[in-house]
Amino acid sequence: MYCICCKKNNVIPFGYAYDSRQSQKIPADKLETEEDILWKKEKRKDDSLSNVNNEMINNGIIQIIDAGYGSKHDGDQIILAICDNCIKQNLEDATLLYYYNYMIPDEWSRRDIEKSKQKYRRRKNLDDLV
C-alpha cells in the first residue's frame, strides 16, 4: 500500500503474493491479494474481528482509523499506511506523536512518551510564536 507521507508503494502486508519469500511458504491457492487483506472483515471463532489492523505488515503500519464526531467524514473508516522511514522522521518533528508500546510497557516506553510530549509542546509553542 502507498505511504501517506512519501507516496511510495512500500508498506506491504505479509501473506500478500508480492513478497516472494512468503509465496514460497504459503500455497498459491491460499494467498490473499493485497486488496483482500486491506478490506478483510471476518469474525474469528472467538467472535473477535479479523481485519488489516491485526495483520502482519512489512516496512510500516497499515491501520483503519475512525473519523469521529465533528469531522466532515463522521462515521467513515479510512485505511492509512505509513512506512517505517516516514514514521521515524515524523516522530522526530512531532508530526506523529508516540503514544505507547503495548508489547513492552516499561521505562523505555514511558521515556519515549515524555520525549514525544516535550517535542509536541516545543513545536506548539514555536507555532504560537509565529
Write the layout of secondary structure elements.
Layout: E1 12-13, H1 20-25, H2 34-38, E2 42-43, E3 49-50, E4 57-58, E5 60-66, E6 77-83, H3 84-92, H4 107-129
Antiparallel strand pairs: 1-4, 2-3, 5-6
What this model shows, in words?
By secondary structure, the protein is an alpha+beta fold. It has 2 domains: 1-91, no CATH class; 93-130. It has helices at 20-25, 34-38, 84-92, 107-129, and strands spanning 12-13, 42-43, 49-50, 57-58, 60-66, 77-83. The strands form 3 sheets. The chain has a two-stranded antiparallel ribbon. A two-stranded antiparallel sheet has the order 2-3. A hairpin with a 5-residue loop joins strand 2 (42-43) and strand 3. It is globular. The model has no long low-confidence stretch (mean pLDDT 88).
Keywords for this structure?
single chain; 130 residues; alpha+beta; two-stranded antiparallel sheet; 4 helices; 33% helix
Q: Structural class of the secondary elements?
A: alpha+beta
Strand order of the largest sheet: 1-4
Order of helices and strands: EHHEEEEEHH
- Spans of 5+ residues with little confidence (pLDDT < 50)? none
Sketch the major β-sheet.
Answer: 2 strands, antiparallel
What is the alpha-carbon Rg in Å? 18 Å
Q: What is the approximate shape?
A: globular
Query: What is the terminal separation in angstroms?
Result: 36 Å
Question: Outline of this structure?
Answer:
This protein is an alpha+beta fold and 130 residues long.
